[in-house]
Structures are given as structure tokens and as C-alpha cells.
């Protein structure tokens, strides 16, 4: 198996590709040619890790809001539904001639 070196992620916001350093000491993105430091990669990883719980919290909040809206819609439908009183009408069947 060929040794491709360590895997890295470009820290440039417009690039962000993943690549191998091919065992070189200086890590340079093959697409945008930005020099990547270990510190920058650690910061990028920390941002991604922090973003995951925030996304989960947002999804839960959206689900809760959706459930609340459904309950409100049910309440509105119940309020709008008025039982009609048909006791005034003659309900006898008409004979066919």
C-alpha cells in the first residue's frame, strides 16, 4: 500500500477540500495553494464539533414549534366547528310516484 501521508482539510473558507500531504513537511492545499498549519486545522475541527450540538438543538426547537402549531390548528378547527341544529327541518322521506 502506498503511503499518502496525513490527511488534512483546507482551512480556507472558499475551499475546504480534504487532501493528503504526501509525506511533505510543509502542508499546502493542492486547490487554493494555502499553507495549512496544525493550529488552523485544530481550530477548524473545534468549530465543527461545536456546531453539531447547535444543529441538534435547532432541530429539536423546530420540532417543538411544529408540534405547538399543530395543537393550535386543532384548537382552531374545534372552535370553528359548530354543530348544526337540523331539528327545524322535516326529515320524513318523500314517496316516489
Topology:
Layout: E1 7-9, E2 18-20, H1 38-80
Antiparallel strand pairs: 1-2
Give a verbal description of the structure.
The protein is 44% helix and 6% strand. It is built from one helix and two strands, in the order ββα. The protein has one helix spanning 38-80, and strands at residues 7-9, 18-20. A hairpin with an 8-residue loop joins β1 (7-9) and β2. It is rod-shaped and about 95 Å long. It starts with 6 loop residues before the first strand and ends in a 17-residue tail after the last helix. The mean pLDDT is 76.
Mean pLDDT: 76
Strand order of the largest sheet: 1-2
Radius of gyration based on Cα positions: 32 Å
Major sheet characteristics? 2 strands, antiparallel
**Low-confidence sequence ranges:** none
Individual helix count: 1
Structural class: mainly alpha
Strand content: 5-15%
The outline comes out as rod-shaped
Distance between the termini: 95 Å
Helix content: 40-55%
Please tally the β strands and state the result: 2
Succession of helices and strands: EEH
Question: How is this structure best summarized?
Answer:
The chain has 97 residues and is mostly helical. The chain contains 1 helix and 2 strands.
Salient structural properties:
6% strand; 44% helix; 2 strands; two-stranded antiparallel sheet; mainly alpha; single chain; 97 residues
Amino acid at each position: 500500500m502506498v503511503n499518502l501521508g496525513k490527511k488534512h482539510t483546507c482551512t480556507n473558507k472558499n475551499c475546504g477540500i480534504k487532501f493528503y500531504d504526501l509525506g511533505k513537511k510543509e502542508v499546502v492545499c493542492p486547490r487554493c495553494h494555502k499553507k495549512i498549519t496544525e493550529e488552523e486545522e485544530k481550530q477548524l475541527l473545534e468549530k465543527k464539533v461545536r456546531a453539531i450540538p447547535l444543529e441538534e438543538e435547532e432541530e429539536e426547537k423546530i420540532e417543538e414549534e411544529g408540534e405547538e402549531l399543530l395543537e393550535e390548528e386543532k384548537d382552531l378547527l374545534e372552535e370553528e366547528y359548530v354543530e348544526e341544529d337540523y331539528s327545524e327541518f322535516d326529515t320524513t322521506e318523500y314517496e316516489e310516484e
